[in-house]
Amino acid sequence: MGNDSLIAKEMAPQQNILFPLEKICMDWQQRQRAGAGLHNLGNTCFVNSVLQCLTYTAPLANYLLSREHSQSCRQQDFCMMCIMEAHVNKVLHSLVSAIQPSAVISVLTRIGEHFQLGRQEDAHEFLRYTVDAMQRACLSGSSELDTSSQETTIIHQIFGGFLRSRVTCLSCKAVSDSYEAFLGVPLDIKAASSVTAALEDFVKPEQLDGENCFKCSKCDKMVAASKGFTVHCAPKVLTVCLKRFEDCTGRKISKVVGYPEYLDLQPYMSQTAGEVLLYSFYAVLVHHGDSCGEGHYLCYTKASNGLWYKMNDMAVDGCGIETVLRQQAYLLFYVR
Known about the structure:
alpha+beta; 8-stranded mixed sheet
């Protein structure tokens, strides 16, 4: 493809790297059975299930278990990284079967001001706000940094990737690329019976025409075009949200959607001709009920000993991978 037909907004280079990629340890540093369960403090199953999925995210847990963050943290007030560090250490080193996640519950409105104690909330929303709060904590004192440098925190280095949006003019075939950072991928499941089918739909180009025409800078007019997303930079940890709740009504799509124990992300990358980009499944968050404002959340996680556990608030029970792969998944967690 000649340069004259490519109009790309290149990804900006980082001026500073806040946490070097090579410092991230992807394999568990200590192997043990699952840690403590979490008491439900009044409709807090959405908190408990998200916290357990994050606790068994190996690169994040390794960092939090090292207590590196709190040793250098200068924040006087609310710091989500310090709170998560204390929580993960408490869960994984506990001598009792269940603990109270009171440190997290007590800052619920600091994580997201609309969260109300005692009210069932959406687990995906809580995950997003928790990861964002950890990202803000990592940027404390670094708000003057350019955007690309802000995307080099430990949180972005673990959960972050980049999507490429490519618009192709159907008249002159000129291509316009833009890039955006992501911390998770939401997948539409209305027409898909599996995660791989939903990913294929996600990267399938859509036609822009009629009222949605595109202003081509080469043709210098509004034209019909195609627009498609691909994963440009793959994250170390891939979090997938299956969009089970209707935007307006909150009603649930209860269909079965298959998900694999090992996922190859290569077919959905900008450069599809490459080696297999294999991810291993390590946690699934499940919702029982008819809408996001009611029902019950629980999760299944793979502990550092390689065994699977069902985590239902206080109860932590061993189970097999066959059971785990049969769940009505809402959030899926994969690690490279």
